[in-house]
Specification:
Distance between the termini: 39 Å
Strand order of the largest sheet: 1-2-9-4-7-10
CATH superfamily of the largest domain: Jelly Rolls
CATH class of the largest domain: Mainly Beta
Shape: globular
Helix content: 40-55%
Number of helices: 10
Strand content: 15-25%
Radius of gyration: 19 Å
Order of helices and strands: EEEEEEEEEHEHHHHHHHHH
């Protein structure tokens, strides 16, 4: 049976108080997010229902008593059973946004979170109130104070400082070379041999190294790079079809399919939010 997606009750917008922060309010039924990454910190507060989220090789249930937090470029996926509902509010903070929050807290380095699921009712309440205040946009001072309170608690209790645990130097260097090639030539029709040649590995070795190092296959990672490129074009006001082709997708429908599967919203919703923001 095909999986049903009724994620029509979804609102996505840009924060006016913190540049680089996006906000999402979603009401989904039986939705499935394929493996994907974000170039931003993600913080999600579940209001009702929940889903199974997989990250770092661990699958856990997120619900109203759990705050979900992920680091930039961290691979994740989520699934819901047929008929299950998930109401949640999410924050997406790009590097400028997290730097701005950090400056407000007097910290120099962005934190790294060693766990994704935080069972912290006080923290959940703070981020829930912050999200609602940012959505209402009626009291900037209150929103600013809630921002400081929520993020200072999050960073203080769970942030490990700015250092990501190091991977093996050789593996990291090989993957970096391949990623650099992808980021330079993402709009081209790359093949696995192109990437394997840069890495000095067989195709099988490259796939295995990528899955072990970044949690995605080379193709899946390239899709994420293309989605990020499409987002940049949409923010600049380019039409959907033009943004899709410039990012390396074969057409607008391919962009929409991957966008919705990874982010839970359509490119049009993202573009509308970018224009109003």
């Amino acid at each position: 049976m095909a999986r049903r997606d009724t994620g029509s009750h979804t609102k996505y917008w840009q924060s006016k108080s913190i540049p680089g922060m996006s906000l999402l309010r979603a009401d989904l039924t039986a939705h499935q997010f394929g493996p994907h990454t974000h170039d931003a910190f993600v913080i999600a507060v579940t209001e009702a229902g929940g889903a199974e989220i997989s990250s770092r090789g661990i699958t856990e249930k997120v619900g109203p008593s759990t705050l979900f937090v992920s680091n930039p470029e961290e691979c994740q996926s989520a699934r819901m059973d047929e008929g299950e509902r998930w109401l949640y509010r999410a924050f997406y903070l790009t590097r400028p946004a997290i730097d701005a929050v950090g400056r407000g807290l007097g910290t120099e380095a962005a934190p790294y979170f060693m766990q994704n699921m935080l069972n912290d009712i006080d923290l959940i309440d703070r981020f829930s109130r912050l999200h609602r205040a940012l959505e209402a946009e009626r009291d900037d001072l209150r929103a600013d104070e809630l921002t400081v309170g929520a993020f200072s608690m999050l960073f203080g209790r769970y942030g490990s400082g700015g250092d990501r645990p190091e991977r093996a130097p050789q593996s990291r260097a090989i993957v970096r070379r391949v990623i650099d090639l992808m980021q330079t030539r993402y709009s081209e029709n790359l093949c696995l041999d192109d990437l394997a040649r840069v890495a000095g590995l067989t195709r099988f070795q490259l796939i295995r190294l990528f899955k072990r190092t970044v949690g995605l296959t080379p193709h899946a990672y390239l899709v994420q790079i293309r989605l990020n490129a499409a987002c940049r074009h949409l923010k600049r006001g380019y039409p959907l079809a033009e943004s899709a082709l410039a990012a390396g997708f074969c057409d607008q429908s391919a962009l929409t399919k991957h966008f919705k599967r990874s982010y839970g919203i359509t490119p049009l919703q993202f573009a509308d939010a970018a224009r109003t923001g």
